[in-house]
Design goal:
Blueprint lengths: L1 E6 L2 E4 L4 E9 L3 E10 L6 E7 L4 E3 L7 E6 L4 E6 L8 E11 L2 E6 L3 E6 L1
Parallel strand pairs: 2-11
Antiparallel strand pairs: 1-3, 3-8, 4-5, 4-9, 5-6, 7-8, 9-10, 9-11
Amino acid sequence: QVQLVESGGGLVQAGGSLRLSCAASGSLVRIDAMGWYRQAPGKVRELVARIATGRDIDYADSVKGRFTISRNSAQNTVYLQMNSLKPDDTAVYYCNVRGTTYGADFTSWGQGTQVTVSS
């Protein structure tokens, strides 16, 4: 099994910054990609940013230039630095990790961390 532990959410004023982190642990053989998704009330979950093992990085258009995803491969940890936050960024943010455990591919989700941006 693979466990994800998220931290770093909270309440911030518009224009402020937050940093999310997500640490993966368990029977990991290989991690193929780590990323962040978010879900606002009444909306579908959407990709925010994703970093693959080959260092390919994808961002949602709405966060380009404001958010930065990074990864510490040695610690199986992914970070999301969020700057110039807007009220529209308010959502529950979920960490997502894809890879391989002993004998099987896996996709794991974190428990979610609330990010609230006040205007």
